[in-house]
Structure formats: structure tokens, C-alpha cells
TrEMBL record:
<feature type="signal peptide">
    <location>
        <begin position="1"/>
        <end position="21"/>
    </location>
</feature>
<dbReference type="InterPro" id="IPR041524">
    <property type="entry name" value="GH131_N"/>
</dbReference>
<feature type="domain" description="Glycoside hydrolase 131 catalytic N-terminal">
    <location>
        <begin position="33"/>
        <end position="290"/>
    </location>
</feature>
<keyword id="KW-0378">Hydrolase</keyword>
<keyword id="KW-0732">Signal</keyword>
<protein>
    <submittedName>
        <fullName>Glycoside hydrolase family 131 protein</fullName>
    </submittedName>
</protein>
<dbReference type="Pfam" id="PF18271">
    <property type="entry name" value="GH131_N"/>
</dbReference>
<dbReference type="GO" id="GO:0016787">
    <property type="term" value="F:hydrolase activity"/>
</dbReference>
Length: 304
């Protein structure tokens, strides 16, 4: 189903030969970031310095995080289960118009992204992101998969490139389109020609989609592990070449988790201001257990 759904450039579909279950060792491995949300967090806590993500960004100009965050009634993700932490839901509405220092009012985008910034240790060296995502339990808050959404991405320090991005929905650019938008896909460096798509999976509703993303900023390599529901992660790609470290002043940068809804009828150079966004929207994504380890947890567990 996934391979029929998108006719994207270079595709390395996962093979069972890479399958390797990864035991979770979240307590013992050194972490470079822990974005798991304690049970006692309220919506209000997200506006304070206790928020492990940035309490001010990236959301609508006139919004605060307490208006964007909710706590959905869904089973814990695998990375939350062990820590007893809880998932969050982010919401896009017509008010989700971000005003950036460099670009101004991004009228054609809708944004509600949990932001990890000013944390060099998360965007250098050799690290592994773990995170889970799923649809809202409420069907009336579904995404509109006629649009392209970024669900997670690493943005360069100068904000002009994404080193990797996890997306869902119909790709904004016609050249990358297939018939169906109900597919998760992980792409490489935004300006690569052709842009690489390293992994795809059906965006099945009402189940967790769990990712382990190894990033080697020293050698410009990454590797993807994936599972659904409560299953352990399995490595689903070989070690992949990707330009994740940039060159000054693009190096380092920041990582986003949540929803960035792109317009239809625009392209990669004009989508901040051009193209169409329907009005009257309410759309949500559930995010669980965002954390980052030093090193590749998979290789660590192989040695144990
Ligand atoms: C949650 O509980 C912990 C431990 O008691 C406490 O340190 C923290 O301040 C509490 N956080 C909130 C947002 O209430
Ligand atoms: C935020 O509110 C101010 C004051 O009403 C308004 O001028 C501005 O355009 C709003 N920003 C956005 C992005 O809608
Ligand atoms: C992060 O790296 C930049 C560039 O090397 C440096 O200017 C900055 O001081 C570093 N920040 C921290 C907190 O180490
Ligand atoms: C989904 O998006 C398309 C393109 O913007 C729009 O035409 C359509 O009305 C939207 N569907 C819903 C249910 O909002
Ligand atoms: C890697 O990324 C940096 C910054 O985003 C860019 O300047 C550089 O040209 C890219 N290298 C390649 C080989 O694409
Ligand atoms: C994007 O669209 C604009 C306006 O139609 C056009 O001028 C520009 O060349 C397009 N860019 C790309 C990369 O397709």
C-alpha cells in the first residue's frame, strides 16, 4: 500500500534483513534531551520554563501554548510507558499563523510545533531521537491529507534548509505526487537534487507510529528504526548518507515536532505566502515520548 501511494524519487524500502528489535533502555542510556511530559503538567505548564520545549515557539502569532496543547485520552506510547509520562496533542486552527523574525507573517502556513532549540548537544555528535505520533482519537479533528504536513524536522541554523523531515499527506510539489496522502515518509536534505525519500509507511489511524532516528553529524549519516503500536523498534534502513550537518552558518540548528501544514498550489520556494489554505480548520496530531540519546541505541543494545 505504501509503495503504491507515492512515486517519490529515490526510495529505499525497508527489508526484513535489517530487522532487529531494539530493547528500550531509556533509564540507563545517557540522554541529550528528555521531552517526555510528566503527569502533573497542565496546559499552562507549557507556557512556563518547566516546558522541556520552547515555551514561546513555534505557534500562531497571537497564541500561547495553553491554547494549542491538549492531553488526549489514548494509550501511552512505548517511550512514555516506561517513564509514566503522558502524550500531548497539538492543534492547528486559522490562528496558527506564525510571524518569524526573518520572513514576517507566514500567511500560507499553519504551525503548531514543539521546538527544541539552543541545544547544541541535540544537533551535533552522534545521537538518536525517539518519538511517537498518531492521529487524534477524535475523527472530527483529523488532518486534511490533501495537504503536505511536516510532523518532525531538523531546521538549519539559518532557517533556510531542513536536513531531514518526516511528512504526511499529499506532497505539495506536483512532481513528487502519488494518488494517496495517507502515508508517512521521511525525507533528506531539502535542497538535494533529487530529494531523497528514505522510508515510507502507511499512516494507519488510531495506532502509534514509533520512530528511532540515528543522526551521525560527524559523518553525515542517519539510520531509521520504526514500529507501530506497542511493538519494539526495528531497524528499517541501512546507514544512509544525508547532509545533516551543513556548513557554517547553517550548522547546528533546531528540531521541531508537531504540525506544519503547507498550502496546496504552492512550491518549495514560495509556500510561506502563496497557495491555498482552507478556513475554519481544527486539526490535531498526538505526539508521545520525545527524547534523545547519546549514540545509536540500537548498536548499544547489540553489544549488551
Ligand atoms: C510535578 O511534580 C514534581 C515532583 O513533585 C515537581 O517537582 C514539579 O514542580 C511538578 N510540576 C508541575 C508542573 O506541577
Ligand atoms: C495578532 O493580533 C494583532 C492585533 O490584533 C494583529 O495586528 C495581527 O495581525 C495578529 N497576527 C496574526 C498573525 O494574525
Ligand atoms: C553552540 O554552538 C555555537 C556554534 O559553535 C556556539 O556559538 C554556542 O556558544 C554554542 N552554545 C552552547 C550553549 O554551547
Ligand atoms: C482539504 O483541503 C482541500 C485543499 O485545500 C480543500 O479543498 C478541502 O475542502 C479540504 N477538506 C476539508 C474536509 O476540509
Ligand atoms: C549541505 O547543507 C549545507 C547547508 O544547508 C549546504 O550549504 C551545502 O551545500 C549542502 N551540501 C550538499 C552536498 O548538498
Ligand atoms: C514557484 O512558483 C513561482 C510562481 O509560480 C515560480 O516563479 C517559481 O519559479 C517556482 N519555483 C519552483 C522551484 O518551482
Amino acid at each position: 500500500m505504501a509503495s503504491r501511494s507515492l512515486m517519490l524519487s529515490t526510495l529505499l524500502l525497508f527489508l526484513s534483513t535489517f530487522a532487529l528489535s531494539i530493547p528500550l533502555q531509556t533509564q540507563t542510556c545517557p540522554k541529550t534531551f528528555d521531552g517526555r511530559i510528566p503527569q502533573n503538567f497542565t496546559k499552562q505548564t507549557f507556557t512556563t520554563a518547566q516546558n522541556p520545549f520552547n515555551p514561546k515557539y513555534v505557534l500562531g502569532h497571537n497564541q500561547t501554548w495553553d491554547q494549542v496543547i491538549d492531553f488526549p485520552d489514548v494509550p501511552s506510547s512505548i517511550f512514555d510507558s516506561e517513564a509514566g509520562t503522558k502524550p500531548v496533542e497539538v492543534e492547528l486552527t486559522d490562528a496558527s499563523v506564525f510571524v518569524s523574525g526573518s520572513e514576517g507573517r507566514e500567511t500560507a502556513l499553519r504551525r503548531a510545533e514543539l521546538l527544541v532549540n539552543n541545544k547544541n548537544q541535540t544537533v551535533s555528535g552522534k545521537v538518536t531521537w525517539m518519538f511517537s505520533m498518531r492521529t487524534s482519537p477524535s475523527p472530527s479533528l483529523a488532518l486534511n491529507l490533501s495537504h503536505e504536513y511536516l510532523l518532525a524536522f531538523h531546521e538549519a541554523q539559518d532557517f533556510q534548509a531542513d536536513f531531514w523531515s518526516l511528512k504526511v499527506g499529499l506532497p505539495m510539489q506536483e512532481a513528487l505526487r502519488g494518488p494517496n496522502g495517507e502515508v508517512l515518509y521521511l525525507q533528506g536534505y531539502k535542497w538535494a537534487q533529487p530529494m531523497q525519500t528514505y522510508f515510507m509507511a502507511p499512516f494507519t489511524r488510531n495506532v502509534w507510529h514509533n520512530f528511532g532516528l540515528y543522526l551521525d553529524f560527524v559523518d553525515n549519516k542517519m539510520q531509521i528504526a520504526y514500529s507501530t503500536g506497542a511493538e519494539k523498534l526495528e531497524i528499517v534502513t541501512p546507514l544512509l548518507a544525508n547532509n545533516i550537518s551543513g556548513t557554517p552558518p547553517t550548522t547546528l540548528g533546531e528540531t521541531h515536532f508537531g504540525l506544519q501544514k503547507r498550502p496546496v498550489g504552492a512550491n518549495i520556494t514560495n509556500f510561506l505566502f502563496n497557495g491555498f489554505q482552507p478556513e475554519g480548520i481544527r486539526e490535531r496530531l498526538v505526539v508521545g515520548g520525545v527524547l534523545q540519546f547519546l549514540l545509536w541505541v540500537a548498536s548499544a543494545s547489540r553489544l549488551v
